[in-house]
Amino acid sequence: MRWRGNRSSENVEDRRGDQPPSMGVAGGGALRLLPMLIKFLGVKGTLVLAVVVGGYGLMTGNLGTILSVLTGQPMPQQSAPESVQQTAQEQELAEFISVILADTEDTWGQIFTASGRQYKEPRLVLFRNAVKSACGTAQSAVGPFYCPADQQIYIDLGFYTELSQRFKAPGDFAQAYVLAHEVGHHIQTLLGISAKVHEAKRGVDKARANQLSVRQELQADCLAGVWANKAHHERKMLEPGDLEEGLRAASAIGDDTLQKQSRGYVTPDSFTHGSSAQRVKWFKRGFEKGNMAACDTFQQPI
Q: Which helix (H) or strand (E) holds 14?
């Protein structure tokens, strides 16, 4: 891809130097103490004590210390993030991802403006091993993901090594496709599509819920294709072979391909992202048509 010299996004947060978040939950020291207080003070006395202690803690700023003593749990220590240690290859990849994010911002900003809407740019969080988001704590094994609750994209750059080596889908455009797909989920959130899908899943069986997930994922693939169309035709960013890299990546992470690799057989009812053929089809459709209207996977056969 021709990306060098293009602007970088200002919406990138690098948490790779942070300590990995704990996956555990603190114990219930206060709950163990509660029966003893009620025994000696009664329910009313315990409530009065809670109000007094809580008020004192808030006024003095020592509420955390008080709770720590009552629960027997140490106060969480705020450790300053370490400086990011990275190889030259990782640094270049971080720069590349920032440039691609900026290009998606330009593309979708123009598309939204043309339709009378305002595009709210997502943030991209780079992390290592594990990360906390508004959707919960996730480990790198889940792969790149988008959290609609905080409208942020989360990527461990180590995934791209896996994409190249395990999934046999190397290349910078394959990496760009993955980010563009997550941006597609952001588009769905802004347009209210994600909320409608979430609501539609209520009260339906797992097979039907999975079908809705597949249609949502395929639409994100199609929206990634729309971005690629603009990057190619308007900014000449794609080079020979780039489109094939993207198609290879879309094929490599299809549900059927992943299930065959992991367990040797395929269960279509359990698909949540779509088959390799479906992912390739909808990414190509977005690339060929270049507009969102072509990406209605909920009303068209997939």
A: strand 12-14
Asked whether residue 203 carries a pLDDT value surpassing 90, the answer given is no
Q: What is the C-alpha separation between 164 and 127, in angstroms, rounded?
A: 19
Tokens of 115: 């339709």
The pLDDT tens digits of the residues spanning 17-54 come to 887 765 543 334 444 445 554 555 565 555 555 554 44
Q: CB–CB of 256/18 below 8 Å?
A: no
User: Between the CA of residue 296 and those of 68, 199, 205, 215, 247, what are the distances in Å?
Assistant: 52, 18, 23, 9, 20
Alpha helices in the chain (DSSP H): 29-60, 63-71, 88-114, 158-165, 172-190, 193-200, 206-233, 242-252, 255-263, 276-289
Q: 3-class DSSP state for residue 251?
A: helix
Mean pLDDT of 74-98: 72
